[in-house]
Amino acid sequence: MRQYEVTFIVDPVLSGDEIKSTAKTYQDMIVKEGGQIVHVDELGLKQLAYSINKRSSGIYFVIEWSITDGTIIPKLELALRRDERIMRFLTVKLDKYGVKYNDDKRKGLIGKVVKAKEKEEKKEASRKSAKPAATKPAAEAKPAPAPVPVAEPAPAPTISSKSEEE
Amino acid sequence: MASRDDIKFLSNPNIGSRAKKYCRFKKFGIKHIDYKDSDFLIQFINEQGKVLPRRITGNSLKYQKRVAIAVKRARHLAFLPYVTDLLK
Q1: What's the pLDDT tens digit per position in A98-124?
Q2: I need a labelling partner for A140 at 20 to 30 A (CA). Which of A75, A89, A123, B78 fits?
Q3: Cβ within 8 Å, pair A148-B3
Q4: A87: nearest CA in chain B?
Q5: Helix (H, G, I), strand (E, B) or coil at A8
Q6: Per residue in B43-55, pLDDT tens?
Q7: Do the interacting molecules here have an ipTM over 0.85?
């Protein structure tokens, strides 16, 4: 079994029903070819990063399905290419990590996990800034006693010179 | 003034030492990079929309390649721009 994912952008000028029927045609096509729809995600109306076909926004759809072989892909892509309602599309084969990622995302784990990770990162960052102060001197404490006498005389002259100036 | 234990260095030894860079994908076990997640990918591009080099992001080669692929896919689907100014 292979798992695929197709993302496409539907023209936002169409009416709501037309948009839904567009997505439905491709779902039906996949099912007809023997695929099993895993998930259909409507990301909704989004602002495009650059204009496509003189449109500045588009409606994103993501269809994920599993199928035994990849013979459907050329047919699906040809149909998408011929469809004037579709502005852009991208078909991707998901590896096992991709499948797991999408699973977790649907369960709502990813968003939280990412946030927790960001927190971890921040903690790590704060720990790192704190750690060098705590660990490094400890590590360098052993060789330190030698430099101490060397370091000591240095401040003394500056102090004495200051006192002289005063 | 002969010997004081609390004075060990004339200057702060931590100045100039930077935190070691690391690959966040390896460190946090992120195995899959989603091309649809533009907020995440934006961390790996500069304000002109170019992919940042490894020497700045600290990514391992394996994940840098995957980031680059994800960014290219995101650009195709207009999640990210191909060229821009003042992104971020």
Answers
A1: 999 988 888 887 665 455 555 555 555
A2: A123
A3: yes
A4: B77
A5: strand
A6: 999 999 999 999 9
A7: no
Q: Which of A3, A5, A7 to mutate: most B Cβ within 10 Å?
A: A7
Decide if A125 touches B, using CB distance below 8 A: yes
Query: Between vectors from CA A71 to CA A70 and to CA A73, what angle results, nearest 5°?
Result: 70
What number of other Cβ atoms are within 10 A of residue A124's Cβ?
Answer: 16
User: CB B3 to CB A155 under 8 A?
Assistant: no
Residue entry with tokens 């690391």? B22
Put simply, whether A50 touches B (Cβ < 8 Å) is yes
- Per-residue HEC secondary structure of A20-64 comes to HHHHHHHHHHHHHCCCEEEEEEEEEEEEEEEEECCEEEEEEEEEE
pLDDT, one tens digit per residue, over B1-33 is 566 777 777 777 777 788 888 999 999 989 999
Nearest CA in chain A to B12: A133
Mean pLDDT of chain B: 88
The pair of structure tokens assigned to A42 is 């409507």
